[in-house]
Write a structure and sequence with these properties.
Elements (H helix, E strand, L loop, with lengths): L2 E7 L6 H12 L6 E7 L6 H7 L4 E2 L8 H11 L4 E5 L14 H4 L5 E5 L6 E4 L3 H17 L11 E5 H7 L10 H11 L4 E5 L1 E3 L8 H20 L10
Parallel strand pairs: 1-2, 1-4, 2-3, 5-8, 6-9
Antiparallel strand pairs: 4-7, 5-7
């Protein structure tokens, strides 16, 4: 199987149907095998019912709410594809962005991530001003502390080769919003090449990301740096 698509979902009954339809329509046109894994993060609405009624999608077992990072890790470890993409249930970044991502794997990149903050990116519908401000400040801090050279760690559209998944996600610790920083920092530590690619992004109504989520990312950022410094990650002996 070439591609696994992981979609974390928490209380997404009103938005996920259009997202799934869009993804399936795109993937049905491709000439490779694929799977779509919807990871329900203990939704309190009818998200599971909506996904179960749709055809061609896999759903994780029922569990309590654990966080987006936990859901992504769960999906990555379930995935069977040679490449594993995670994207948001609100379809803020359309799956057809993949069309200009694949070429980088032929250029020996191991991770390709969507970015809203580099030349060529288009933000079709912007976020609230305070989220924009928090995001810009956070990007600077994140580059200084954990992942230099990456301008947008938090965009919910990232694809990893199978070997990165095998090395990084089993040792991922963070279960909340800061997990993006952690997995990218680990990928860098292991020497994997990361390509940041501009995308078109839409701010979908009904986002679960609150201002407090940005503050939690900043807190998690320093946890990652401390864990890297103190050797808290159980790293394969063959890795750096």
């Amino acid at each position: 199987m070439k591609l696994s698509v992981i979609i974390p979902a928490y209380n997404e009954e009103k938005r996920i149907t259009k997202t799934l339809e869009s993804i399936k329509e795109y993937l049905n046109r491709q000439d490779y095998d694929w799977e779509v894994l919807v990871i329900d993060d203990g939704s309190k609405d009818k998200t599971r019912d909506v996904v179960e009624k749709a055809e061609g999608f896999k759903l994780n077992k029922t569990r309590k709410n654990m966080g987006k990072g936990y859901s992504i890790k769960e999906g990555m470890l379930m995935a069977q594809g040679d490449y594993c993409l995670f994207m948001d249930a609100d379809n803020a970044t359309k799956i057809n962005e993949l069309d200009h991502f694949w070429k980088y794997f032929d250029e020996d990149y191991d991770v390709v991530i969507g970015s809203r903050d580099i030349k060529g990116a288009k933000v079709a519908v912007p976020q609230a001003w305070y989220k924009e401000l928090a995001g810009k400040f956070g990007n600077v801090l994140i580059q200084i502390v954990a992942v230099p050279g990456i301008h947008d760690t938090q965009c919910g559209f990232k694809i990893f080769s199978k070997r990165v998944v095998a090395d990084v996600f089993p040792i991922q610790k963070l279960v909340g919003w800061g997990f993006d920083v952690e997995v990218l920092a680990l990928a860098k530590k292991f020497g994997y090449k990361i390509k940041e690619e501009p995308i078109t992004w839409f701010n979908a109504a009904g986002s679960n990301v609150k201002l407090s989520s940005y503050l939690k990312v900043f807190s998690d950022l320093f946890k990652v740096r401390w864990w890297l410094w103190t050797g808290k990650y159980k790293i394969n002996k063959n890795k750096k």
